[in-house]
Amino acid sequence: MHRIEGSLSGTLGFVTSEVMKGAPLSLVVRWARELGYTEADPRDDLSGLDSARKSVILARELGLSASLEDVSREPLVPAELLQPGTLQDLYEALRRHDRAMAERCERLRREGLALRYLMSIAVEDGRGQLRLAPAEVNGAHRAAQLQGVEAYVAFTTDRHHEHPLVVQGAGVGGALTAGGVLAEILRLAVGHGAR
């Protein structure tokens, strides 16, 4: 394994897709919350914390030693907007950022780019460098093609060097989460001798 990259958050995929279409950030985050896409506190999504947790899990599955403190993480929005408080406090803070986000997205559209929130794990000498940040990608980039709550992970390996192995699909939802938890429980049970 040389590198893993992707968009791990269906929530942030939805948010960035919608703001690129011209919807106000504060409204999109409210929609995502009402649709059940966000974490209990959407700040965990917007700060990149939820994606950081997922990147640590991926790194550990590779056998790397990793913790949240090892993740270089830039939030989707300025950190000062994500201060603790009520959901209403968050929506009001985001409303103050609506214009700046709209201007950024308008500039990106003019330049043929899209805003996405991406993760990368670079593996070198048995160590991983984990990074999460907003990214401005061109239309040919895999992340620019994502729709709604889709997420993807691309694995660059010795065998998949020129064309990474890609796993892509919906990144949020109760059934998906429940299926993932059940699969992990069964994997653990089998590992302990259950049949």
Walkthrough of the structure:
This protein is of the alpha+beta class. It has a single domain, classed as Dihydrodipicolinate Reductase, domain 2 (2-Layer Sandwich). It is built from seven helices and six strands, in the order E-H-H-H-H-E-H-H-E-E-E-E-H. It has helices spanning 10-20, 25-34, 43-46, 49-61, 87-95, 98-110, 174-191, and strands at 3-7, 71-73, 113-124, 127-138, 150-156, 165-170. Strands 2-4-3-1-5-6 form a six-stranded mixed sheet. A hairpin with an 8-residue loop joins strand 5 (150-156) and strand 6. Helix 1 runs antiparallel to helix 2 (25-34) and helix 2 packs antiparallel against helix 5 (87-95). It is globular and about 55 Å long. It starts with a strand and ends with a helix. The mean pLDDT is 90.
- Distance separating the two termini: 31 Å
What is the highest CATH level, the class? Alpha Beta
Fraction of residues in helix: 40-55%
Strand % is 15-25%
Could you please say which CATH topology applies here?
Dihydrodipicolinate Reductase, domain 2
What is the CATH architecture annotation? 2-Layer Sandwich
Number of domains: 1
